[in-house]
Design brief:
Length: 148
């Protein structure tokens, strides 16, 4: 009889682990799907500046906004890699540094970094990603063009 209870408990544990795994995989599939939609939209807007102009924040010209959308596209792709566990720790910090080495990456973060931080609030992986990006941004002070 005792063996029967142990076997039932083991089966229940295995079943619980499978349920947790399925839920995790479903969340990952949802993340990928949402990211795919967002990345497609960013691609569409960068390819159609007339449509991008409709979404540009006040004071940002269409050409600049398209460049910022392109930087956002890169950052969104990196964020997905982080959420899926592909880019973590030192590797995350490395890619964040590479993005912020580029002037467009710094311009994007200067303009939209606070929005990304608000958006990430309460979501631990998003907060970690945003912190890495912000730290990399702070490590690369803005370089003024000659004559400014």
């Amino acid at each position: 009889m005792k063996f029967k209870y142990v076997a039932v408990a083991a089966l229940a544990a295995v079943g619980a682990v499978q349920i947790v795994q399925r839920e995790r995989h479903q969340r990952q599939r949802n993340e990928v799907t949402v990211a795919h939609i967002q990345l497609n939209r960013l691609t569409h807007l960068t390819a159609h500046p007339d449509l991008a102009a409709l979404w540009a924040p006040p004071g940002v010209g269409t050409e600049e906004y398209v460049k910022l959308l392109d930087a956002n596209h890169q950052i969104c792709a990196l964020s997905l890699r982080h959420k899926l566990g592909i880019t973590r720790g030192k590797q995350l910090r490395f890619v964040a540094e590479k993005v912020m080495e580029r002037e467009i990456g710094r311009r994007y973060w200067k303009r939209f970094g606070s929005f990304r931080a608000e958006e990430a609030a309460g979501d631990k992986p998003s907060e970690e990603f945003t912190e890495a990006m912000h730290d990399a941004y702070l490590a690369h002070p803005e370089i003024q063009p000659a004559g400014v």
